[in-house]
Specification:
Elements: H1 4-19, E1 24-28, E2 35-41, E3 52-58, E4 69-72, E5 74-75, H2 91-94, H3 105-117, H4 127-135, H5 137-149, E6 152-153, H6 177-184, H7 204-219, H8 221-224
Antiparallel strand pairs: 1-2, 2-3, 3-4, 5-6
Length: 227
């Protein structure tokens, strides 16, 4: 006898397969469908395009009455992603009172994809990323791309991607950023408490690299221009 959560996630899986959203890969890790692995690529026409981020989504038997727990395994340098835990800071994921039973696996993944190139800067969880983006967008892009090549990765509990391609949803359907933004930006907000806020700029290694990149940018502006 399958649980209600299992049947809903089976429905969500079918919805994801039928839509084939571009840049989104997802698959169940456990037979009861309570744990998922996913791979998200940044939207086209943004500097996030071509960058792939692995994440996990953990549901409970109370789905879809409560939100799942979502964490990036490949942690981006992003205002709305906790750099230590990989936790994605989105309103409806953080606060069960703002969760809506109409949300599905597809809507969660689409929101995360939009969040990458459309950060919420009013309540950032990564204060350094938000400050850098506000003050020097060009430098922020460079830091994101450089850190992506040496990412912060949560490996211990990471899912093993299945070798069977039939078990993975490879997305091929193209959707414009405007369509994404119109649909999902109203629910992609960031809420954070002081407990989750950390100081990357207090890390001396990062400070050294930061000023090396800045110096290189001033010395060779054409080579560093990623706009």
């Amino acid at each position: 006898m399958y649980s209600r959560a299992y049947l809903l996630l089976e429905r969500d899986f079918q919805e994801l397969k039928e839509n084939n959203f571009k840049g989104i890969t997802a698959f169940p890790i456990r037979e009861d469908l309570m744990e998922w692995g996913a791979d998200i690529e940044g939207l086209q026409n943004t500097f996030w395009h071509g960058l792939f981020f692995q994440l996990t989504i953990n549901f409970t038997s109370q789905y879809n009455c409560v939100p799942p727990v979502v964490k990036f395994l490949t942690i981006p340098f992003h205002p709305n992603v906790d750099q230590n835990t990989g936790r994605a800071c989105i309103d409806f994921l953080d606060d069960p009172n703002k969760w809506n039973t109409s949300y599905t696996l597809s809507s969660i993944l689409l929101t995360l994809q939009v969040m990458l190139s459309n950060p919420e800067l009013e309540n950032p969880v990564n204060l350094e990323a938000a400050q850098m983006l506000i003050e020097d967008e060009s430098l922020y892009k460079q830091v994101v791309l450089r850190l992506f090549n040496q990412p912060s990765q949560l490996r211990d509990n990471g899912p093993e991607f299945p070798k069977d391609p039939d078990k993975i949803i490879r997305s091929i359907k193209e959707i414009s950023f405007n369509d994404y933004y119109k649909t999902w930006s109203t629910i992609a907000t960031s809420k954070a408490t002081e407990h989750y806020r950390s100081s990357l700029l207090e890390d001396p290694n990062f400070i050294v690299e930061y000023y090396k990149w800045k110096k290189a940018e001033l010395k060779h502006p054409k080579e560093w221009n990623l706009k």
